[in-house]
Amino acid sequence: MAFTSSIGLLAAVLTTAAFVPQVVRILRTRDTNAISLWMYLLFATGVALWCVYGLLLWLWPVILANGITLALALVVIGFKLRHG
For 31-47, what is each residue's pLDDT tens digit? Predict the structure, then answer.
């Protein structure tokens, strides 16, 4: 694997993994009071567009990382809408 691909892969893993603790906490506590719905809606829209970009260029690292991140963001949004 090329050095630049390794950097991109590491960046994708870290930025995606950064959302896991937040999702786990929300799943455990059902507490979303400190979460901004608008921030997550804007973020999820941006991540969805990154997925489209990745699909258009057939860039699997972009597709996978942003697809997983989008799924995590949608979990947060769902809990925010359900539990306020």
Answer: 999 999 999 999 999 99
pLDDT of residue 1: 65
With 0-12 / 13-18 / 19 or more C-beta atoms within 10 angstroms meaning exposed / middle / buried, residue 23 is middle
Per-residue three-class SS string for the chain: CCHHHHHHHHHHHHHHHCCHHHHHHHHHHCCCCCCCHHHHHHHHHHHHHHHHHHHHHCCHHHHHHHHHHHHHHHHHHHHHHHHC
Q: What CATH number is associated with residue 75?
A: 1.20.1280.290
Domain count, the chain: 1
pLDDT at 16: 92
